[in-house]
Amino acid sequence: MVSAAERLASSIDFRTLGRATELKKRLWFVIGALIVYRLGTYIPIPGIDPTVLQEILQQQAGGVLGIFNMFSGGALGRMTIFALAILPYISASIIMQLLTVTIPTLQALKKEGEAGRRKINQYTRYGTVLLAAVQAYGIAVGLENTTGPSGSAVIDPGLFFRISTMITLTGGTIFLMWLGEQITARGIGNGISLIIFTGIVANLPGALTSFFELGRKGAISTGVVLFIILLAAGLLAFIVFMERAQRRITIQYPKRQVGNKMFQGDSSHLPLKVNTAGVIPPIFASSILLFPLTIAKFNQGSAPEWLSTVTSYLSHGQPLYIAMYVGIILFFSFFYTAVVFNPEETAENLRKNGGFIPGIRPGKQTATYLDYVLTRLTVVGGLYIAFVCTVPELLISEYSVPFYLGGTSLLIVVNVIMDFITQVQSHLFAHQYEGLIKKARLKGRR
């Protein structure tokens, strides 16, 4: 059931946006920051031959580089200062989440509240710089050893090119990390998510144009084009429904006495999302499966026979690829859910605050019950992600649908839009609430 707060938020008239000065300032800041990001995706690093680079990217369009180029908003394909995008920060955040579960010192930091969270964020930033530097150096070396039909991708290879490329790409990632934090603090929504969202959406018009061009030339029939459009609309509606789906567990708080007054027991809900893992499982699954394909394409003509055989079975749309894709998504759905949600810790927090689930004893039995419910939800969530990501994969292999219309990009776009709209509604609701308080005060003075 929809809560009263959600009903009030959804009923807010967006015409109040014109009177919400603070919200307008935040929206303009977000727009300005994202424009700066898009401009940076067109500033190339020095020493690169753009013609050869474009030839190489076309050869690697279906591999891991295609995924990274999508997340970077095309910056990797143009080899600009933002070629690494925000991916090193995402990787560092995931690694830090895993370490927080396994290392007692980090577990203690997490329990310290805001101070501990700031320290963990600082460690994440250090990890981002380290990962970005390593990846940037690897890209520089890889570019020096890569040649296309027109020659080498690097005009003047050597130590100076490697160092300058490493500094430039690392600096670009650090700037994007700072820009994302500024958007989160001074704008609306999660800054990192909005940067990734902007990169994907910026390339959607070109992808859709190429898709409709295939229909115009007759490569895809009109019926298939209409079917894919309707299927995409249905997938979007299905994703919205599933991302909003929750299992709300009733939490009861007993009566309490404060002084001579007895307060009635209260009840609330513990919301458990169906898709707790988010978009992490399909990103990991795609990266793992497409890695052999990328290696094989880089070594065309010189790759061993066994690698060519493996890549032929792991091509888009092949039964083995689909089966392994679904299996890896399900595995990471359970794995990442176990990382981000700890039933024992949640049960202990409920017990300390005097809360309990009706019919379930506090402590170990509560943890067991939460784990049971979460396991069933994760099965549904994993199958949902696998379905949403598998259908576009079949369309990509069968009808040459643009890669940007894949399940991972759809999940990211829908999640970011929903989060952004929710936060805008919250600001509008707060502005409307402040207006009501001011009116009440004026009436009281009369």
Question: Which descriptors apply to this entry?
Answer:
17 helices, two-stranded antiparallel ribbon, mainly alpha, two-stranded antiparallel sheet, 71% helix, globular, Preprotein translocase SecY subunit, single chain, 446 residues
List the helices and strands and how they pair.
Blueprint (H helix, E strand, L loop, with lengths): L3 H7 L10 H20 L9 H10 L4 H8 L3 H4 L8 H16 L1 H7 L3 H31 L2 E2 L2 E2 L6 H28 L4 H27 L4 H23 L1 E7 L3 E3 L2 E3 L3 E7 L6 H19 L6 H9 L5 H22 L2 H10 L11 H36 L7 H39 L1
Antiparallel strand pairs: 1-2, 3-6, 4-5
Helix pairs in contact: 2-9, 2-10, 6-7, 6-8, 7-8, 8-9, 9-10, 10-17, 11-16, 11-17, 12-14, 14-16, 15-16
Rounded radius of gyration (Å):
25 Å
CATH superfamily of the largest domain: SecY subunit domain
Tell me, what's the shape? Answer: globular
How much of the sequence lies in strands comes to 5-15%
Secondary-structure element order, N to C: HHHHHHHHEEHHHEEEEHHHHHH
What is the typical, i.e. mean, pLDDT? 79
Query: What is the CATH fold-level name of the largest domain?
Result: Preprotein translocase SecY subunit
What is the makeup of the main sheet? 2 strands, antiparallel
Total number of beta strands: 6
Q: What does this 3D model show about the protein?
A:
The strands form three sheets. The protein has a two-stranded antiparallel ribbon with strand order 1-2. A hairpin with a 2-residue loop joins strand 1 (147-148) and strand 2. 71% of the residues lie in helices and 5% in strands. It is globular, with a radius of gyration of 25 Å. The chain has helices at 4-10, 21-40, 50-59, 64-71, 75-78, 87-102, 104-110, 114-144, 159-186, 191-217, 222-244, 280-298, 305-313, 319-340, 343-352, 364-399, 407-445, and strands at residues 147-148, 151-152, 246-252, 256-258, 261-263, 267-273. With 446 residues, it is mainly alpha-helical. It is built from 17 helices and six strands.
